[in-house]
Write a structure and sequence with these properties.
It contains 3 helices and 8 strands; from the N terminus they run βββββαβαβαβ. The chain has a single domain (13-119), classed as 3-Layer(aba) Sandwich (Hypothetical Protein Mth938, Chain: A). It is an alpha/beta fold. This is Mth938-like domain-containing protein.
Length: 124
């Protein structure tokens, strides 16, 4: 599926597949954190089962308004205790499968929101 960004001055997801995403002109094949303010950080996890509380603490350090968590090929929720660093900073977290997270990130970034997407890219 191809996307057209509403705001050309923000980093956007231009396409995606089961185990990759297009970020502007780049093809990304590893889990990644991207932000509307230009952040692009490798996210060291290959499967949902690899995630730890430290992964979500890392997201809290990015000082976003909201974090969109793409949990891979299907929607899965992290343990609530892992979200404490985000809640302490009053950062919202929305969880959905990675493809839905890509679409949601683009909408929020296109609106000028300070949004970060943490996208788990896994294969079946």
């Amino acid at each position: 599926m191809k996307f057209q960004p509403e705001r050309p001055d923000t980093q956007s997801i231009t396409a995606y597949g089961p185990d990759w995403i297009g970020v502007d002109a780049d093809r990304v094949t590893e889990s990644v954190i991207i932000g509307a303010r230009g952040q692009r950080i490798a996210w060291n996890c290959r499967r949902f089962e690899d995630l730890t509380a430290a992964h979500f603490a890392q997201l809290a350090e990015l000082d976003a308004e909201v974090v969109i968590f793409g949990s891979g090929l299907r929607n899965r929720f992290p343990p609530p205790a892992w979200l404490q660093p985000l809640m302490a900073r009053r950062i919202g977290l929305e969880t959905m499968d990675t493809q839905a997270a890509c679409r949601t990130y683009n909408v929020l970034a296109g609106e000028g929101r300070n949004v970060v997407a943490a996208l788990l890219l896994e294969t079946e």
